[in-house]
Write a structure and sequence with these properties.
single chain, 510 residues, mainly alpha, Growth Hormone, Chain: A, disordered C terminus
């Protein structure tokens, strides 16, 4: 590309960072609005979960494709297209009057979010070099952490002042400003890249496979895990994935090269964000509902409580970067990150089981956030330093696919596990109610709105029901997070084993 002026670099930096701030703040902030959306739209548990799942699914699935698109149609054009999609989808979400349309708009926003992250980082690679590039990516990571940190707090304030629609209106306004910043910026299309290099077939197969898997995970408890629909969706997902593997083995320009999967160090690094998905991300998404449901916290207080989890993600990437610069091995920091995430999540479960104070829970959340922060600032650079220069773009796409795909799967599993657990507990303990009423109680508890049903009863009965609901929510929360923690521990073992092996290719500077 031609030389970019200093003023243009500043505009690019500001535009990308503002857009990057919106995406994670949308993810963390939307979670705290779920009970309000449920009340306003009278939605069932599965449809409500897709407000989060739809965004995560499309975000994860389109990352690889957007990376390829930026090589063909240009970094700026791809970034602007993604920002435009996100702005329009956010405006649509604010004015959605039906939960189905809200899910659709959130899915479109996920497509735009994938472009913002993958094409925004590609813009930085083209525009900055040397020390400027290091500083730009440090700001990239810090801004993402800031979005995660402030998302629940900003959303909590908007919920109190206006309503859940204001959250999406704010996202749309910020991204319109981003689009204004990018109008006169130069494009960075890579010369000699034909449109035929976009692997549409491979991308379609991968997206379809992921969609059927997510559909099974989110609806499995409703359909029954051994029902015909669940088995068909699972079989279809597996079949499509096998066809995807067959395709990329034979395609001339595949969306993914399987050679990356044999790189042990690279695979070890990209498994660290998977552990974060099953610990940090699931707590970020659903713990606010536990706080407002089981602990009866107002939305604003729940948002402040979540700062214990999100604040370290703002601070510790910078700390980890300085430690690495002073010679602390990056692999040691990864091990420390894994230990913190597992120990914090385990401590939180123990604290809830023993009815410890919110200070204990807050401390455990802080430890989980610390583990996330230690790896968030390093894992991308260290993973990409393990691959050949010609594979860096594809490797970045695979890294983000692992990160975002595991987030989508972890969040979907959480929703299915906790709904299944609550269904069993309600059937055992609320035997005076009909099956339809029991279904209403499951929906209300899973969405954090059980107090609305309890308020319909006299004080003596309401007190008994509140105690029962609190106990059921605690058991369901412990069971669900115990299962997810077991998965995270298994992935951590694999990550450590791979990180301890020698690099399979020579180290290069990413």
């Amino acid at each position: 590309m031609s030389e970019v002026s200093l003023s243009d670099k500043k505009y690019i930096l500001l535009a990308v960072l503002l857009a990057v701030f919106v995406v994670p703040s949308s993810i963390s902030g939307t979670a705290i609005a779920l009970p309000y959306i449920s009340t306003d739209m009278n939605s069932d548990v599965a449809s409500l979960q897709w407000v989060v799942n739809a965004f995560n699914l499309t975000f994860a699935c389109f990352t690889l494709m957007w990376g390829k698109m930026s090589d063909v149609i240009g970094r700026k054009r791809s970034f602007v297209t993604g920002a435009c999609l996100y702005a329009l989808a956010s405006a649509g979400s604010a004015w959605a009057t039906d939960i189905l349309w809200l899910d659709v708009f959130r899915a479109i926003a996920g497509v735009g979010g994938a472009a913002i992250f993958s094409c925004g980082s590609a813009l930085f690679i083209d525009v900055f070099d040397g020390k400027q590039r290091t500083q730009a990516f440090a700001l990239f990571g810090t801004t993402a952490g800031l979005g995660i940190t402030l998302g629940p707090t900003i959303s909590g304030i908007l919920l109190v002042l206006s309503g859940w629609q204001a959250i999406f209106i704010l996202h749309a306004v910020v991204l319109v400003f981003v689009l204004c910043l990018t109008i006169k910026l130069p494009d960075t299309r890579v010369a000699g890249k034909p449109v035929s290099e976009i692997d549409i077939i491979g991308s379609g197969l991968f997206i379809s496979s992921m969609f059927l898997l997510m559909l099974t995970l989110s609806k499995g408890y409703d359909w029954g895990w051994s029902s015909t629909l669940s088995l068909l969706c699972t079989s279809g997902s597996l079949l499509l994935f096998l066809v995807f593997v067959w395709h990329i083995r034979r395609a001339e320009n595949p969306v993914l090269s399987l050679s990356l999967l044999s790189n042990n160090r690279f695979m070890g690094y990209i498994l660290v964000p998977v552990v974060a998905s099953f610990t940090f991300v699931t707590l970020l998404t659903y713990f606010p509902t536990y706080l407002t449901g089981a602990m009866q916290m107002p939305a604003s207080a729940a948002g402040l409580m979540m700062l214990c989890l999100t604040l370290p993600v703002l601070l510790f990437p910078l700390i980890a970067g300085r430690l690495a610069a002073k010679g602390v091995p990056s692999s040691f920091l990864m091990y420390l990150s894994l230990v913190c995430m597992l120990a914090g999540a385990g401590g939180l479960l123990l604290g809830i089981e023993t009815m410890q104070t919110v200070w204990v829970s807050g401390s455990c959340l802080f430890v989980v956030g610390t583990g996330m922060g230690l790896s968030a600032g390093l894992v991308d650079g260290e993973a990409l330093s393990c691959v050949e220069p010609g594979d860096i773009g594809m490797a970045a796409g695979l890294l983000n696919t692992f990160r975002l795909g595991s987030e989508a799967i972890a969040v979907a599993l959480y929703g299915s596990f906790i709904s299944s657990a609550l269904t069993t507990l309600v059937a055992e303990q609320l035997t005076d109610f009909t099956l339809a009423d029991q279904g209403d109680w499951v929906t209300a508890m899973a969405s954090g709105n059980a107090s609305t049903l309890i308020a319909e009863w006299a004080d003596d009965k309401a007190s008994i029901l509140m105690n029962q609901v609190t106990e059921m929510l605690k058991i369901a929360f412990l069971t669900t997070n115990g299962l997810l923690l077991t998965i995270a521990a298994g992935v951590s073992v694999v990550a450590v084993l791979k990180l301890r092996r020698r690099r399979t290719v020579r180290s290069v500077q990413a």
